[in-house]
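1st attempt posting a full record on here, be nice pls
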Amino acid sequence: MQLRVILAICAALAPGALLAQPEHCARSLSEMGLLLGRLHFAREWRETTMQDGNPLLLRIEDRNGPLRMEFVKDGQGRWAEGEVEVCRQSGEVIAQVAPHKLTIGEHVGWLLRHLLQRGARFTLVALEGRRMRVSTTGWSGDFEPAAEP
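the predicted structure (as tokens):
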């Protein structure tokens, strides 16, 4: 009996056991929009809260496969892109990119480059007026839909 209790505790405390499991994951751009409570979801988003005057452009694509996210800094080029898994988890919408599925752009500074080598995890929050907040540890930005081509 004691062995079973010890094994159950060890299993519960194993790495990853305490992480919330995804409730629902998006497999398309429209499903991603529904996770955020939006019927229409833009493919391109422009940052509105940048401090340096150079907004990030966030592109989200679905090409009949995994969703892809790309961050392009205005005037500097691509910062990062990769296949992303977007899931509702504990009431939040989380976009996560595994390290081996992430490409880091040449214009990214050494600190951000070092942090991104472990992958990336972003929380997405729908705001009023079709805006969206994208945040991760140490950074957040508000975005609005960019003009569609």
